[in-house]
Amino acid sequence: MSRRILVVDDEKGIRQALGQLLEYEGYEVKTAGNAVDAITEYDRFRPHLVFMDVKMAGIDGLEALKRLKQTDANAVVVMISGHGTIQTAVEATQLGAYDFLEKPLDTDRILVTLRNALEHLSLSEENTRLKQTIESRYEIVGRSYAIKALLDKIEKVAPSPARVLVTGENGTGKELVARAIHRLSARADGAFIEVNCAAIPSELIESELFGHMKGSFTGAVQDRAGKFELANHGTLFLDEIGDMSLAAQAKVLRVLEDGVVTRIGGSKPVSVDVRVLAATNKDLEHEIAEARFREDLYYRLNVVPVSVPPLRDRREDIPQLVAHFADRLTRNEGVPPRGFADDAVQRLTEYDWPGNVRELRNTVERLLILASGPRIGAADVERLVGKRAAEQTSLGSLVECRTFEEFKDAAERAFLLAKLREANWNVSETARLLDMPRSNLYKKIERYGLAREDA
To answer: Three-state SS for 4?
Structure first.
């Protein structure tokens, strides 16, 4: 794509000479003889870069620069002047000029400045594209009342400095909520640092959060900043906070109270300015009652509670989510493009989705990859996802049981199946959630003939 350049100078000879040079270099060029025409031409031509004279009759170049920046804050403007002074150059820079060139113009200097300015512009455009890609990846999709209420709460709490505790089942999108709060906050230009407390061994979580000094423990081969330091002036997201050890909880509480961290093996406290957001899929009040979570930390984190609804409570969003995931997967990850028939979407809407939005996203990817034909239908959903909608045990079907024993078996089977799906069929994790010996759970899985649907 040819870059567009606007040349603004009240001397016709300079406009023509500079315009010819730039056209010879392959750029698309427009010219203007005064600031008023330049502002009009800018709106119509939308140039990537402007060369503008400082001294012009009527509105001078500095005033024109100010007006262009008000119209387009990203305008790239190089000022040129035959009476250049340090004061003028400083004023132009303060108004947002990219560079300042003195007349007579040197061809090599013009081309070097032009190349640097366009490289700067390319980097800026690439950063914008990357930001849009990231925001698309973490977009909260849906038009249901539950999602509108969630977004409304995010918009209210984000500008404040309040700590937020995000709760919800696995796969509902708690991280998306945290990122949205950060993006809409006054700290949006700062770092967003995420720590998955469940994925880090308890003996390493303190080093991860607070950092360490060289030699403070085996394997500490150099000084290392912790996540609190890395998130300074930004946001720290403590995901699965309910899985953090009590020892680490005590130290996190101290940081929240004092605003300072001390690295493991260190003696010098470091001040940090961090907004902490936390998330969990556990009932922290129950964890407090069982002495597995600190009550004082809970109240420090739970200034504003935000609950993310499970997908089964907002089924009306499923068609939009299916379209969103299909579009993103085909555009960004090279998955073959296919359409979804109405009956396929309807079948997906009927499922309970114990794994929530994450499970739906993975299912859409599976269907796009494995379905036959250009369009995915209900038969593809049943073949590749399973007939889980018909398999769900409803209250009506339980009431139809003939005996109390039959009712208990049906209810237990449905309960175990739901918990296994919630834990993504991790038997050890399911047994822990149910506070049941793993051997007992295996016996019940065998007794009821439970099997993963996509196995």
So the answer is: strand
What is the pLDDT at residue 133? 56
**How far is the CA of 125 from the CAs of 131, 168, 275, 416, in angstroms?**
10, 36, 29, 51
* Alpha-carbon gap, residue 455 to 445, rounded angstroms: 15
As assigned by CATH, the class of the 145-307 domain is alpha beta
What confidence tens digit (pLDDT) does each residue in 104-154 have?
888 888 999 999 988 888 888 777 666 655 555 568 999 999 999 999 999
Q: What is the model's pTM? A: 0.62
pLDDT given for residue 397 in this prediction: 55
Domains 311-388 and 395-448 agree in fold: no
- Integer Cα distance of 31 and 256 in angstroms: 58
Q: For 311-388, which CATH class?
A: mainly alpha
> What phi and psi values does residue 65 have, to the nearest 5 degrees?
-60, -45
Nearest CA to 41 out of 75, 79, 81 is that of: 75
Q: List the CATH code of the domain at 395-448.
A: 1.10.10.60
Per-residue pLDDT at 393? 47
- Give the fold, CATH level 3, of 4-134: Rossmann fold (3.40.50)
Element (H, E) at 300: helix 295-301
Domain range annotation of the chain: 4-134, 145-307, 311-388, 395-448
